[in-house]
Amino acid sequence: MQKNYKKSFLLEQNLIHLFKEKKSELFGNCHPKVALSRQQAFDDFQAKGLPTTKEESWKNTNLSKQYEDIFQLDNPLTELDKSAGEIFQCDIHGFDTDVISMLNGWYYSPEGKQLQILENGIVVGSILEAQKAYPEYFDSYFDEIAKGRNHGLTAVNKALFRDGIFIYVPDGVEVEKSIQLINIVNRDEKMMINSRNLIILGKNSKLSFLHCDDSVNHNPGFINTLTEIYIGENACLDLYKLQNINNETALLNNTFIKQELNSRSKVNVISLNGGIIRNELNVEFSGEGADADLNGIYLMDHEQHIDNQVFVNHAVPNCNSSELFKGVLDDSASGVFNGYIYVARDAQNTNAFQRNNNILMKSTAKIDTQPFLEIYADDVKCSHGATVGQLDEEALFYMMQRGISRQDAYLLLMYAFTAEVTGKISIEALQSNIEDMIKKRLRGELAICEKCVLHCGHPDIPLEFEIDMSKV
Amino acid sequence: MLLNIKNLHVSINGKEILKGFNLGVNKGEVHAIMGPNGTGKSTLAAAITGREGYEITKGEIIYKGKDIRDMAPDERANEGIFLSFQYPVEIPGVSMTNFMRTALNAQREYQKLPPIPAGEFLKKMEEKKQLVEIHAKLTNRSVNEGFSGGEKKKNEIFQMAMIEPQLAILDETDSGLDIDALKVVAKGVNALRSSENGFVVITHYQRLLDYIVPDFVHVMYDGRIVKSGGKGLALELEEKGYDWIKKEFEI
Ligand SMILES: Nc1ncnc2c1ncn2[C@@H]1O[C@H](COP(=O)(O)OP(=O)(O)OP(=O)(O)O)[C@@H](O)[C@H]1O
Ligand SMILES: [Mg+2]
User: Cα separation of B179 and B174, whole Å?
Assistant: First the structure.
């Protein structure tokens, strides 16, 4: 009888080879926990391999094309890259942020400062530098949330990440300006980028963080990012993800959040464009009285694919979670929403709500939406709902009867559909910028960004719409 | 003639609903259409406004001298045809203000005019709101969402006042209105009434016609007009019901 060998993908072989070849670099100057995590993840990866559609949670997201592609996997920053780094400018009208950049997978500071201490002791910089400068934070927090929670691609990230960002907000500090991470890939080669971020919010602190994934050209790429966020007691995080990458790029964005007593998180994942986007959002309550408000919008067309995996772990009592993900899928676009809520036996007085609404513009578009509730406590308020529909023909006719063209009526309805989510963005200037981007996207006018994903908000370039959808 | 409907046959899903309908409306005229439930009054309104699924199998609809059969609903609207819906649609997330401004600007674009300046628009909103006695809050809400039945009908007349159509079709705008709201609706209609406009008022109740005095009253039955007369016909119907017409017609 013939033996059944597990097929090994080209990318798998190349990644394993890379790890062995670059081992001394990867482990050099490394915090012991980072080293441990790398080695464990590598062993895990060798055992598991890359995730395929045979795995339940990947059954509708197929990366096999990427797995057989040849990516440049390791790429130190060149001087040329750096000069291209000057393109990082971002003007969000009326919204001032502290911008930090990742360029081709490396932390990049035009002033050459890999780690900065801002006012009130806020630390921002490269995770590589941070592990040396602040080993104590790595002792306490690194890999504490993401440990052991691997599928093949998280394992790849953990074993092979080259750089990433580190943010530390001390106890009691409310970060006034939002911090904006712009993650840009700008190379002529196809690249796979593994970066790992660590964000720590001390007790009673507050941070608003924007994570922008951008393309500046149409080259194929594979971006694999893992972010751990620790929200201390009574601290508050606003996290915005803006995803506007080209149709040839696959983006995996894996976020692990851990929330302590009375902490709050508010997450908005805005997926505007991308070949394949998969967001994994894991929230674990480890202190009572915590609250997570998790929202998303996705607007996909052509052959694009979006996959949102949301896991909320109510490990302790008296916490609230609420999820609202809404999407419009056009052409042959496909989508997945998996919302998994776990309520532990002792997690009494839990409120967990979840809703996923989809509009399919064409019969060729599809969505696979699945709630999954696992509840062991008895005093729990839980609800979930998913809808898949077309635009309301009655409403379309009503609008057309008032003289509005079918296309504009479509836009108004779709825009209204997403407004429920954008309405939750608490920074007003950001909200109106994101709304503008959504309008552009819905009109098919949103380019992958020449400069920054949010550049469209530049005051010198006013946005004009035939239909003005602003509120008077 | 503003509107001239000749021998109109309309089918829905292959089932014939209008069966040789004729109606002529001149500028300046108000025509009331009455008739039992299910005789095709709303079907007529849908056919005039170009709703999908209403197939014209025979006859024609001439509006301002043009056969409008192949015009899209938005084009017909921009040509001046307005329908006050029997069942106004709720549109969550689209504010009344936004909706109206988009509609007005679409109309202006059709007429090759620049968009309405914000100030002028707001002034107009305010003016028309007062005309139909809508209280300030209503317009910042989503279109018809959470409106009461009466508010929805008033909102239709508000929109009519904003759009200032040439031909307005009111499909049971009076149903479900209290007497004060009825007067408001009538006030809105009468304010628009001029030697240039025409109205088709579909109603079950003579009461409305006390306030919007029609030039003609038509009785519709089984897909066509079976009796026409002056406003006295409405009173007669109120008194005797439809049975005598049905009998007369069926014999
Ligand atoms: N979409 C549809 N499919 C099939 N039949 C329909 C459809 N719409 C209307 N009809 C039928 O067409 C006929 C006329 O309906 P219509 O709504 O025009 O009546 P109406 O005169 O407006 O009645 P009412 O006074 O109750 O409003 C009815 O028998 C109705 O059941
Ligand atoms: Mg009707």
Answer: 9
